[in-house]
Amino acid sequence: MLFFLIRHGDPIYDPDSLTPLGHRQAEALAKRLALYGLDEVYTSTSNRAMLTAKPTCELLHLEPKQLDFANESHTWADLTVEREDGKPGVTWLFYNKRTVALFNSKEIRDLGDRWYDHPDLAAHNYKKGIDRIYDASDEFFAGFGYHHERYTGRYKTDDPSRRRVALFAHQGFGLAFLSCLLDIPYPMICTHFDICPTGMTVIDFQSFGEFATPKVLVHSSDSHLYREGLPTVYNGGPRF
């Protein structure tokens, strides 16, 4: 199976939607995906993810299926920390300076998959959030004939699918999802990788006998934006 994880376009978070640029990004992405086709499209239950998938589904005559476990509101509740800039509320773990430093410490690296047991993190019960995504993603891929052997980095294949499947979702959810899918500890994923608007990550479930190992072929590719001459400004940063 070729699996495509795609972030929504340039967002409006309140109300949940896309900016005019986000709609243009979604249209550019649809042209790219239509060249090779998809067999199935899934989306988060968030409006911005569904709007991003809409042009692709229209071009390919597909009906999207919704996955509530991919809605970023759940991940936001699970994997955030109190802000340290004096402002009220919380922020993503990977946007918090102190947490990022901790995530890249030897102590966290030594804990591996049980990073959430670190004394500075244990009170937050981050394990619950990671386990939620692990369980839901394992059930999702089992539906395609891939049964996850956790922490070995491989999936036992039972009549595996060779379909091309896309999931339109989010940055915060996507980083945690990739951690579970690839069996790479979350602190390593979220501090060393990011996902740009309409960025496409392509994963090939390569079969070797009765097992398959998911391999990342492309991460957060936005070549469709270059093709359409759209700006590639990400999170307020410089163009690149």
Give an overview of the whole structure.
The protein has nine helices and twelve strands. The protein has 240 residues and is of the alpha/beta class. The chain has a domain at 2-69 and 132-227: 3-Layer(aba) Sandwich (Rossmann fold). It has an eight-stranded mixed sheet with strand order 5-4-10-1-11-12-9-8, sandwiched between helices. Strands 2-3 form a two-stranded antiparallel ribbon. Strands 6-7 form a two-stranded antiparallel ribbon. A hairpin with a 2-residue loop joins strand 11 and strand 12. Helix 3 packs across helix 7. The model has no long low-confidence stretch (mean pLDDT 94).
Quick structural gist:
By secondary structure, the protein is of the alpha/beta class. It has a domain at 2-69 and 132-227: Rossmann fold.
* Class per helix and strand makeup: alpha/beta
The CATH class of the domain at 2-69 and 132-227, by name, is: Alpha Beta
Write down the secondary-structure element order.
EEEHEHEHEEHHHEEEHHEEH
Tell me the name of the CATH homologous superfamily of the domain at 2-69 and 132-227.
Answer: Phosphoglycerate mutase-like
What overall geometry do the principal axes of the alpha carbons give? globular
- Report the strand count: 12
Overall average residue pLDDT: 94
Supply Rg. Answer: 18 Å
CATH topology of the domain at 2-69 and 132-227: Rossmann fold
